Amino acid sequence: MPEAKPQTIYLKNYHEPEYLIETVDLNFILEAEYARVVSRLTITHNPDNKARNAALVLLGEELTLISIALNGVTLTTSQYKLNDESLTIADVPQNTTFTLAIENTINPKANSALEGLFVSNDMLCTQCEAQGFRKITYFLDRPDVMARFTTTLIADKTLYPVLLSNGNKVAQGELIDNRHWVTWEDPFKKPCYLFALVAGQLECIEDHFTTMSGRDITLKIFVEAHDIDKCAHAMQSLKNSMRWDEVTYGREYDLDLYMIVAVGHFNMGAMENKGLNVFNTKFVLARPDTATDMDYEHIEGVIGHEYFHNWTGNRITCRDWFQLSLKEGFTVFRDQEFTADQTSKAVKRIDDVNALRTRQFAEDAGPLAHPIRPEAYIEINNFYTLTVYEKGAEVVRMIRTLLGTENFHKGADLYFQRHDGQAVTCEHFVQAMEDASNKDLSQFRRWYSQAGTPVVKVEQTYDAAKQSLTLTLSQSIPGQKNAAVLHIPVKVALFSEDGTIMDASVVDTVAINNELTLELREQTQDFIFENVPGTPILSILRGFSAPVKLQMSQPLTELAFLLRHDNDSFNRWEAGQKLTASIIFELIDTIKQGKSLSIPEILIDSFKAILEQTSPDLSYLACLLSLPAENYLAEQMPVVDVEAIHHARQFVKRSLAAHLTEQISALYLQNHQQETGELNSAAIGKRRIKNLCLDYLSQLNTDDSHQLAHNQFANAKTMTDQIAALGSIVNSENPEKQACLQQFYQQWQDEALVIDKWFSIQASSTQPDTFTVVQSLLRHSAFDLKNPNRVRSLVGAFSQANPVHYHAKNGQGYQFLADQVIALNSLNPQVASRMVSALTQWRRFDKQRQDLMKQQLERIINTDNISKDVFEIASKSLA
């Protein structure tokens, strides 16, 4: 247990800072073993805070204080109080600006938590969001204190030839003893969480971008020398992002220089520090032979996300950390739309909803459920969650749905105009949307403070005499006491039997292309469709217009009909998912009864029709042919039956492969072409559909299917094809499995990101020996518990992407995870706390598994010196 119970921070207790910092002059003397930091702060009393004579409390952790001077006078130890978390000066000037100079040292080499200033492969770099700056120097470390920073870096030229910080380089020079210095100045006020520093032996590629007003922006991407040939895609992605933000939102970049640095040890995906983005290498480095098509898409999406933060996060930032979704939800929405415009809108929407429903819905249904604007936290790093990010993006999407695209962009313009340079709240964002559109969003605001996933129940009654359809919608939020009645946009269309959309109407609802957006604002609400000539087939929640679960009875014949005829790409796919899931759940019941299994002809016929159709979007075709994920199926069961889900789903997969071998093989061969590594949508689509077909055929475990996978592996020209073939081999009884794994490792052992894939593919295998393999991989020379990417690739993949083995009845998976969490706790609490999430859903399982998971959570909590990051997640899970 922690020595003292960690303090809970509450939104209701927010108060304006007593003091503001106007300017910050930072001096870093960077050595191989330590860094000396000299800060000079210009401080003034905050006029918005009415308190007077308050002590100045600066936050600082893991710092060695050398000296403090107030207005040039050195303070004695009796004039301040120092503890492990803060520096307090009781007596500071009240009616005038004053200066405070602080000198301290830090040890970046010992910083395995990767917060503040740390070392990655001999490179010095920073991560200050959310509260890392206090590990660099004493400061008012809160997002509503915004200051102008000037930073000077001094270092040995051989150790650290490249010295970077935020803003513009304004001066540089040489010193004695092979040392040099560089000064950077950021002209924009920013909170300290956006501060960045990088120093190391780096090379860069350079390009330029001309803005819509004609300004020339220099673009630089810095990497270690051996990665310089993997930066071209990231650079093009940056330019694509800049152009898209200009065209779509009218937002132009504001500095003359934009820099990205790729770092091998990083807790997150990337960080939007003003003018100097620090990225996990995973989201920068790519060549066709080392990165998959999905990697390329993710790189472009994350590059875009961090760039878009320049306006939605940097120019306008959060008043406090409870408002995190203000910047993250809006920016995720922006990066999703950007990726959709760059790739396939249909596939992107499906991918985003899949992630939301398999992971965020689980978060909403468990003990860690929280609103997108939480009310309290112990450790803010634990609130960088799918709820804040992904559900936050859906809330923004709903606003656009309710307002319409034109009014939504008027609202965005007003938001940027009103609040540029400010630290604001979610309320400011919604208010701008209201004022620009004259749309009342007062009830909609409840989405910001309501936890849980709403369930919308749908009932329909058709009156042939009146030619009317009554649609009764009701809403509830299971597991949430006194749940608020939300404002939910529900997009609907009615189909006739010939596959055309009916021209029906609802009072006070405008139809666009015969699609209506119903606004559910009551617990139960009737919507009457008039001029409905016959019993319709309902397509509801089109485009996934709200992050809700639907309860609606639909026969398999209707789902098969929508799978063939629905013109909404999301709902067409969704019909196929529901059709397949219904059959899988029927098979689960059959398994429990001990009867023999078979799949109905309606599923075979539906898949056969899809396989035989010509599609201009092969990536979307692959989505239509993909089965629901095991985690998604588990979300729909009151008590998760891990083995039955896996058994039933695998049976469906094998049966479809057996019944449709001819069609699947033909589609594979049709798209198995000589690869050149092109990244256009046609080439990506061919690879995606081909590799899905290979996955199906591998289920047959025949000599032919084994040979097909081995041939693709041996002759692959792209990582997309090679890793797909290896996955098929590892997840089958292919006799070449060990030889291929060894060959892959030997080929790519010097490429860290590729070896991450090698770990993951084994950790997520469903073969019987997987747990033994995972245990052995922990001892592999390439595994490093201090590297977050490596931890995620092995421990994360096993616990989060391999339910059938992680949830083994004997509890060995749970003990394995707890062992790693405890080991990580002292090294990197952030990564440790994220790993705990795989134990938090224990209530969803049978009694035996519940007891085993609780036992490991209690073991974690009772570990000596448990971090507050891990304590918060584990204790809330058990509460």
From TrEMBL:
Residues 558-879 form the Peptidase M1 alanyl aminopeptidase C-terminal domain. Belongs to the peptidase M1 family. This is Aminopeptidase N. It comes from Methyloprofundus sedimenti. The keyword Membrane does not apply. Its cofactor is Zn(2+). Its EC number is 3.4.11.2. Gene3D superfamilies: 2.60.40.1840, 3.30.2010.30, Neutral Protease Domain 2 (1.10.390.10), Peptidase M1, alanyl aminopeptidase, C-terminal domain (1.25.50.10), tricorn interacting facor f3 domain (2.60.40.1730). It catalyses: Release of an N-terminal amino acid, Xaa-|-Yaa- from a peptide, amide or arylamide. Xaa is preferably Ala, but may be most amino acids including Pro (slow action). When a terminal hydrophobic residue is followed by a prolyl residue, the two may be released as an intact Xaa-Pro dipeptide. The lineage of its organism: Bacteria, Pseudomonadati, Pseudomonadota, Gammaproteobacteria, Methylococcales. Aminopeptidase N is involved in the degradation of intracellular peptides generated by protein breakdown during normal growth as well as in response to nutrient starvation. GO terms for molecular function: alanyl aminopeptidase activity; metallopeptidase activity; zinc ion binding. Residues 67-194 form the Aminopeptidase N-like N-terminal domain. Residues 452-552 form the Peptidase M1 alanyl aminopeptidase Ig-like fold domain. The keyword Lipid metabolism does not apply. Keywords: Aminopeptidase, Hydrolase, Metal-binding, Metalloprotease, Protease, Zinc. Residues 234-447 form the Peptidase M1 membrane alanine aminopeptidase domain. One of its GO terms (biological process) is proteolysis.
